[in-house]
Amino acid sequence: MSSPTEFKIIIVGGGVAGLTLANMLEKFGLDYVLLESHEAIAPQVGASIGLFPNGLRILDQLGIHDEIKDVFKGNVPYAKTHSRNQAGKVVSTIGNMSEHLEKRHGYGLLFFDRQVLLQILYDNIQDKSKILTGQKFSSAELDDEGVTAVCANGSTYHGTFLIGADGIHSKVRTVMRSWGNKYEPGVFDVKEEDEVPCYYKCSFGIALNVPNWVGGEQHIVTGPERSQLVVSGPDNRVYWFLFEKLPEPRYGKDIPRYSKKDEEDFVNHNANLPITESITFGQVFACRLTSTLTPLHEVTYKKWFFRRFITFGDSAHKPNPIGGQGGNGAIESCAELINALLETKKNRGDSLSNLTTKEVEDVFAKMQNARYQRAKEIVALSHKMQALNAYENPLLSTVMLEHLGPLAGPESVLCMMGQVLLGGTRMKTLPIPKRPRLIPYNDELPAVPIKEDSVSWLVRGGQVASMAALILVSAKAFRLPFDEIAKWAAEEPVVIRWFGQTKASDFLNSLVSVLAILVDHNPATRLQVANFLFQLVSPLLIYTIEANRVGNQGTPLALDLLYSFGMQVQGIGRIGPLHAALQSVFTHERPTGRHVPVETAKALIPAITLGYVIPTIMVFARTPNTVAWQHALALWQFAPPLVGFLTRGISSLLKSYQRGIGKSEEDEKDGLERYKNKDVPILNSVYTYAFAAQATVHIASMLYAWAHPELSIFKTFFQVPNPFNPDWNLPTVGAKLGVFFKYDMLLASAASFASGLYSIWDLRRLGHVETRDALIAGASTIAGQFLVGPGAAWAGLWYWRENRLAGLTTRCQ
């Protein structure tokens, strides 16, 4: 037995949490003993485990990642991940899920026997004398110098503190709470154990050689009150989870434990439940090696420790297994305990001897503070995922799973997974092996993310409210004098009839009349309109780019044609604020969502030049041929949406050409092309083009107004009447149209300016840029409004943003 003053940890439980912690303690030369109740350290209990990147990153620090990956013998698992409805029909498919995760996060998804992982963890331990089997923990004695574990066979073990890594039915937790209630009544909520909820039961197990099973695939099957996760494993194994909602939630002691007869009844009831269109649950179950029916507790206990006892893993935080984070969360808790221990050791002169109870509790408090909120969020997210898959809210599940999910594509699913993965922890004093990845973990970002949801929602709410205010102003300020336009058109008729003698031609000609009046009007109006129309290059390009980003698919931002048509019908002064508000709510948050298909990026400059820049130049290049000029004015009415159509057409031609010369479609088909950043230099050229064109027009316009003896920069571009004044008393139809276009430009510029500032804030909120960089970008955006104009300033900001996001993907290469 060790001396009471020597540092030693007692670990109860030889599962994933216990053996992982044992490996960590050995790595840092910290003494321990592990007590496992089973006679074998890696018993076959019919369970599988899914290791995700957040868990694998920590295991990689221990040097066992490659050994785990070798279980698959070089075969990349999960060539296809299918989402299926209750009939087993495919709703959506993601190709190469594990490769996606590996490229994004440095590690893939590895699903295999839990027994195999336990054996790997055990084999990695050098001093196996510290791992004791057949030692069933039964009670403990607590004193000021340490704790003594008592096993059912009478064996006793003394240590500095005792860790309960013994699962949801933790004996250590029971003993710990009894000591707490004895010494400090009220330290634990006496009702907490009885309030632990159970909403679902689950059949899980391992099958072998299932007929008609396609290896390398996994299936997520959704449906009312039931969902399934069925996954391929190594050596022709199949791992299944069938979740069934209980008729009503059960709590605490009322949560049932199931017998083999219960399992038999469950299987008979669900035997014909489809997994695919050709395989049922019963067919998989018939090929079982092992199986279990169990209730699913879902809980994050409020307090994980008392004096010299602490619990973690399922004994402290137990999520629904649908999210695969139970084992990974336990690994994270091990890492945070090590971090807290080593920090204390450093602060005590590199010694952990003679730790007082207060010092031990300080270590435990640091560990729980580091893990509690994340563990609680994972339990909540897993519950929501299960509720969605089991159609607890049928309307929400139908919309999300059957419509929006497939429309949004793989990026939305991968980002939702990343939401959990990126917040993972690590052992701070051990290096992380170099594994190329495109998305930094939160602890690898340039800046610490701003986690206060209240601040984020306040800023987002302010953005939406300010854009709504701009739209309200437009409702008051947009006063087109249609009767006077019609009268002018009758006196100086538009002779073209693109759509024959129809109302469509009449409407088009009225729009032609608007531009004709302005271009024929005084030099101030002509100058303002010329400057304004060229400032639309950035909105058209950026709306098109954002619509084609993989991270914006399935959101309103993907509707670029709607915005370009809306610009012509409602004015950019309304569409700009609308788009800015939607972007603050729906824009992608991961650097991988930034990607634009290369062919689309290549199509942008030809599309904007042919579809918008040339038609706009033709508006102001009037010739004596009035009919030809009117045709040019009519063509311009279609210029904004023409950019979108040309982008689609040119990109389709480029794709066809690439396929024609034998370019592989594999990466494109599986969505792996997005990880190569080939679009970045092309998009940089697009932003440079837009910046140069718009800055040139803006600077030339300002210089012309400054040099012209009859013009004033302020009056030409900024002076407008009060929008809430009912009578503006403007003398001519040209003056009224000029005010409309001024308001249109000012409101659009305000929207693009606000959108730019919000995008800078969003990058800082997510930790993608440092505060200093964000402030410089904000100041540059403000200065750019005046120096190069709103359009060029927006293009310049998007150039900076594009490269900051792309730069994140190279930080961990």
From TrEMBL:
Keywords: FAD, Flavoprotein, Monooxygenase, Oxidoreductase. It comes from Bionectria ochroleuca. One of its GO terms (molecular function) is monooxygenase activity. This is FAD-binding domain-containing protein. The keyword Ribosomal protein does not apply. Gene3D superfamilies: FAD/NAD(P)-binding domain (3.50.50.60). Belongs to the paxM FAD-dependent monooxygenase family. Its cofactor is FAD. Residues 7-352 form the FAD-binding domain.
